[in-house]
Amino acid sequence: MSERRNPLLVLTRARILEFVREPEALFWVFAFPIIMAVVLGFAFRDHPPDPVPVGVVDGPGAPELTQALSKAGTTRPQAYASLAEGLEGLRTGKITLLVEMDTSRAPGPGPIYHFDPTRPDARLARLEVDDAIQRALGRTDPAPARETLVHEKGSRYIDFLLPGILGLNLMGTGIWGVGFSIVNARLKKTLKVMVATPMRKSDFLLAQILSRFVFLVLEVTVILAFGVLAFQVPIRGTLSLVGLTTVLGSLCFAGIGLLVAARARTLEAASGLMNLVMVPMWLLSGVFFSSERFPKAAQPVIQALPLTALNNALRAVMLEGKTFPAVFGELLIVTLWGIAAFAAALKIFRWQ
Amino acid sequence: MSSRPPAISCRGLRKHYNDVKAVDGLDLEVEPGECFGMLGPNGAGKTTTIEILEGLTKPDSGEVTVLGRHWGSHERELRERLGVSLQESRLTEKLTVYETLELFRSFYERGRSPEQLLADLSLEEKRDARVGKLSGGQRQRLAVACALAGDPEILFLDEPTTGLDPQSRLQLWDRIAVHKAAGRTVMLTTHYMEEAERLCDRVAIVDHGKIIALGPPADLVASLNAPHIIEFATEPAVSEELLGRIPGVGERRRRDERWLLNAASLAQAVPALLAALDGAGARLVSLSTHRATLEDVFLSMTGRELRDE
């Protein structure tokens, strides 16, 4: 006879070991969100807008024009030997605007602009170029303007993006991690062997959820540390509230993962269900762009989705420094989803 | 002794899957300390029956008691007292052998330590190997070790040695014998008559969801009234009528181009057979004899071989 160890702890440890020994799973949990943040972060990084390529047709006044444009700096002038060549460049998209100086006009020479008026960048280029030319020729503004430029941390795209990626990752690892391992165990009859022992079924399901905590800590730390170190994303709220929010989010999606896998008999069926659950939230729940952009009529549904609530809460805490009462409603939505999903999963779970 | 309830008892067990009658009115009783085998071809209903007895499948009708208890009212208590090894189940591949045994041990109130279980099935050398790296025989031994984790009063084994190498098979047989020697009950299914003859006190031969013969293996073989089987083929073939006239030959069955004859005495039947073939002008292509086995019992009762696949 030997001493017994707590089955819930042994089950949880077994689940963690099983996961850690799966290199692919580790990759998807840690590397994937970071790669995504790096790619998107650089794609939308803060930098001055590229100078607009503008064609200048050679002729009298052309060198002065080119010089004036270079000095203004908002456009990148390119010389074309003839009007025909310039129009060719415009047609093929090498330049967005073509300028030629018309010297035959009275009272003095003036520019002629060739551009496609349906292209916003072409219209912008026309304004920039015209402004540069007029100023070079001595125009004085009746109401001189001054500019103050805003580059505040917390209002950049990467700041918006990082909490969204964190939420997305919590959803993905929760649903995939729990769902696939359960369907796999059912498929290989590992579940059935366990049901033939006195193991408590609730212990088994609870271990699936508890094991998520370990990954959660790693996952959240890695993603947040990356955001803070690489992009100086601010965390204005308390770390403990960020922690609470991610814990609730993670449990919620582990519960949904259990529910998705509660009856599926094949990996194909499970992955179909997972996509059905996750893809709408990828799009609607404000991961990559604000969910407010969807029509008003759809908002009650979108705001009630667990990922929307989680993302809203993460952004409010991280970017706006909100405190617990301010995000209570969002956290409640997340928690209720988790409890409802776990209860439903326990009820309909297929053990064999 | 007589006051102890049977280890396993079932009456009128039925289970249909759509049109297939997997179990079709099956009664049996297994005494404590007995090693009981269900022998039958694939698809005979052995697995469905044993899974009903294990409380994993609900029968459409019929009554099951295990250790005098019903599954509906005493599931937890029964699970503590039983050990189950399923057919074709896979344990988590990423865990080591030792971790797997620790896991299963933790499910039971009382039981054998992981070290004891390793020794029970000679898995000490594989202690730290991942389950995914084990051979089929090692995995099967691990599955049985898991079934033994709660030191069960009844051990259920569904096809424990199917597809195993001879060494793993012998190790499993030894371990089952140890369990029985400790006064515990074993219930197993198999389609190897050798396994049934060697391990089981009593055997139920199952076909089409029913028990067609029940008793100790030796009694079942004796019921053929012919301890010897003569198997032969000739060129050209001979008629059954000719064989029927040979003294000392009992039942006659044809398998492809061979004849199988039951005989009470080889000394009497073989010379008579040779003389009869000679007289009919048939040339002997092959001739062999063996002692009758459960295989012959099954063949005699159903006209089919156990391992007809």
Could you give a quick summary of the protein structure above?
The complex is a heterodimer of chains A (352) and B (309). Chain A is α/β, with parallel strands linked by helices.
Structure in words:
The complex is a heterodimer of chains A (352) and B (309). Chain A is of the alpha/beta class. Chain A has 2 domains: 7-44 and 153-348, no CATH class; 52-136, D-Maltodextrin-Binding Protein, domain 2 (3-Layer(aba) Sandwich). Helix content of chain A is 64%, strand content 7%. Chain A has helices at residues 7-20, 23-43, 62-72, 83-91, 120-136, 157-187, 190-195, 201-231, 239-260, 267-284, 299-304, 306-320, 324-348; strands at residues 52-57, 75-80, 97-102, 110-114. Chain A has a 4-stranded mixed beta sheet with strand order 2-1-3-4, with helices on both faces. In chain A, helix 2 runs antiparallel to helix 6 (157-187) and helix 6 (157-187) runs antiparallel to helix 8 (201-231). Chain A is elongated and about 105 Å long. Chain B is α/β, with parallel strands linked by helices. Chain B has 2 domains: 8-216, 3-Layer(aba) Sandwich (Rossmann fold), CATH 3.40.50; 225-291, Alpha-Beta Plaits (2-Layer Sandwich). In chain B, a hairpin with a 2-residue loop joins strand 1 and strand 2. The radius of gyration of chain B is 23 Å and the shape is elongated.
Average pLDDT number of chain A:
87
The dominant shape of chain B is elongated
Compute the separation of the termini of chain B in Å: 43 Å
* Poorly predicted runs of 5 or more residues of chain B: none
Structural class of chain B: alpha/beta
Enumerate the spans of chain A where pLDDT stays under 50 for 5 or more consecutive residues.
none
Series of secondary-structure elements of chain A, N-terminal to C-terminal = HHEHEHEEHHHHHHHHH
Provide the CATH topology of the largest domain in chain B: Rossmann fold
The largest beta-sheet of chain B arranges its strands as 5-6-7-3-8-9
Structure annotation, total helices of chain B: 11
The quaternary state of the protein chains shown equals heterodimer
